[in-house]
Specification:
heterodimer, A: alpha/beta, about 35% helix, B: about 280 residues, mainly alpha, about 80% helix
């Protein structure tokens, strides 16, 4: 089993009578991009804050980078971009990175070089000398991302990192997340933009009413593929044989709908039908979207209106 | 310690970049210009009173210079409360503090760094104004206030008390509430001290005790009275014939009380900050 960078068991946070997080049990592995999904008010941000040591849990336990939650040595290897990134707006972009670098004990030419490298990476080198108050929301988000990465962390928490960005900005963040994965940096991504999560995450956890309710791997395995096939001569033994390959959800008037684990099972279905002399007219495969998963896991009661 | 210094440097940087220092220099300069002009005309007027004895002249100049320091004291009190009043509450409210507190620094280092940075700004502002007042008195009237080495540190301690209160309050209260509490306590000390003076003058021990209790709750005014008492000649201390000649002067124990007060208030602020959800 890969090393865990985040591991919690029964983490709970209660503000007076209000329970913000009921029971958070999750694990994030080293080097993976982990999505944390849930509707508004599900307790995602409070969960994130507990993992960062900003909010003390009421109960439960957890470790981040092998140390108890909130440990200062572990925080030295964490990066964090809050949802509503705000900073002393009178600082310039470069000064902001220097200040945050100094808080990690960085200094001198190595800090200068790292700050310039990141400013170039988030496309802010030309604006580095300007006060942050003159930045657009997107620029603010990008300089915030740069401050989260200034010390080359082992784990980065990104809370809605693309919320203020245009499509090009989103692509930039997506590329940076991919680079982080390639460098072996784990990313804990909290985002409402399911398309972004789908494009970047290896694994997601759904949170509902302060509890982790479902886990899904977004690689080739786990998420599943929905298959629809139209054929003549489909008899009961053929349907039974298909059920051995995947889960048949519907079979009517020569149309079968089923779910298989991955695309790899499609040739097997075709071979089986041909071997049984079934005339196959059409076969369609569609990966179940994360949005569909989200709606299924959360249920209709979570939908507003 | 490194993180405290980084935070203190950021606070100083903020004072420069947000033109707080510029505003302080302009206002301080305007105040000193006004004081210098007033003293100039007063000294010229004193020169015309040939019947005035040397002692009377010294008493008049002492009162005028103390009036300048009283105004300095007031400006410093304002600055002590206003400078840091939203430094923590504002950053907690806006979420700025989250990126700081998630770094490998203690929350106490954030508070202490801000305290140190603001104290340096306050001390610089105070020294500039106080030295300005004393220099103007020296140049225009050839007058030197006595015992400034005892008086000025007491005034700075008063500013430190209020600054510490404002910083500590910011760890728990909103900016407005924090400002109201700090100025409210300053007002309480101000009124309490007058009650004490009148109580002493009329030999009313109950009134005197009320004033003493007010000074224990907030020692700011007692520190100013003790500073003013030091910085005047024995004759005005004894006669109590100027607005800055207290009838009742806080003892040296009040200075220790004020120093302990700062330490305790700061510790309470640190404890609040440590437990606070950010």
């Amino acid at each position: 089993m890969p090393e865990a960078v985040v591991e919690t068991r029964g983490l709970r946070k209660q503000f007076g009578e209000k329970v913000a997080v009921e029971e958070l049990t999750l694990r994030v592995n080293a080097g993976e991009v982990f999505g944390f999904l849930g509707p508004n008010g599900a307790g995602k941000t409070t969960s994130l804050k507990m993992l960062l040591g900003l909010v003390e849990p009421t109960a439960g336990e957890g470790k981040v980078l092998g140390a108890p939650i909130g440990d200062r040595r572990a925080r030295a290897r964490l990066g964090f971009l809050p949802e509503h990134f705000r900073f002393q707006e009178w600082l310039t972009g470069r000064e902001l990175l220097h200040f945050h670098g100094q808080l990690f004990g960085m200094r001198g030419p190595s800090l200068d070089a790292r700050a310039d490298e990141l400013l170039a990476r988030v496309d802010l080198l030309d604006a580095a000398h300007r006060p942050i108050r003159t930045y657009s929301k997107g620029m603010m988000q990008r300089v915030g991302l740069a401050q989260a990465l200034i010390h080359s962390p082992a784990l980065v928490f990104l809370d809605e990192p693309t919320s203020g960005l245009d499509p090009l900005g989103r692509l930039l963040v997506r590329d940076i997340i991919r680079e982080l994965r390639e460098q072996g940096t784990a990313v804990f991504l909290n985002s409402h933009l399911l398309g972004e999560v789908e494009a970047t995450c290896d694994r997601v956890v759904f949170v509902k009413e302060g509890r982790t309710v479902h886990e899904l791997s977004l690689g080739s395995e786990g998420a599943g593929v929905d298959v629809e096939l139209r054929a003549a001569g489909l008899d009961a033994p053929a349907i039974e044989a298909l059920a051995n390959i995947g889960t048949v959800t519907e079979s009517r008037n020569g149309t079968v709908r089923m779910r298989v684990a991955s695309d790899d099972r499609l040739p097997e279905i075709v071979r089986l039908l041909v071997a049984r002399n079934v005339a196959l007219y059409e076969i369609k495969a569609a990966r179940k979207s994360l949005e569909a998963w989200f709606l299924e896991v959360m249920g209709d009661e979570q939908r507003p209106g | 310690m490194r993180a405290i210094l980084v935070m203190a440097r950021l606070t100083l940087h903020e004072a420069v970049r947000r033109r707080i220092l510029t505003a302080a220099l302009i206002c301080g300069g305007a105040f000193l210009a006004l004081f210098g002009t007033g003293l100039h005309f007063m000294v010229r007027n004193l020169g015309r009173h040939n019947l005035m004895t040397l002692v009377e002249r010294q008493v008049a100049l002492n009162m005028m210079t103390l009036a300048g320091l009283y105004a300095t004291n007031f400006l410093m009190v304002m600055a002590a409360v206003m400078l840091p009043v939203d430094t923590l509450s504002g950053e907690i409210h806006s979420g700025v503090i989250q990126t700081l507190a998630a770094k490998p620094i203690r929350r106490s280092e954030i508070v202490l760094g801000k305290w140190l940075g603001h104290w340096l700004v306050l001390a610089g502002y105070f020294v500039l104004l106080a030295i300005g007042v004393l220099t103007i008195a020296r140049l225009e009237a050839h007058f030197t206030l006595p015992n400034v080495q005892h008086g000025l540190p007491l005034m700075l301690l008063e500013g430190t008390v209020l600054l510490t209160l404002s910083i500590a309050g910011g760890t728990r209260f909103t900016t407005i509430t924090n400002g109201m509490i700090a100025f409210g306590l300053y007002g309480l000390a101000f009124i309490g001290n007058w009650v004490e003076q009148i109580g002493t003058y009329t030999d009313n021990s109950a009134a005197r005790n009320v004033g003493t209790i007010a000074s224990l709750i907030m020692p700011s005014e007692a520190l100013w009275q003790r500073a003013a008492w030091f910085m005047q000649p024995a004759i005005t201390r004894e006669l109590g014939n100027t607005p800055f000649s207290p009838v009742s002067v806080a003892s040296g124990a009040m200075v220790w009380w004020a120093a302990g007060y700062c330490a305790v208030v700061l510790c309470v602020g640190l404890a609040w900050m440590r437990r606070r959800a950010l």
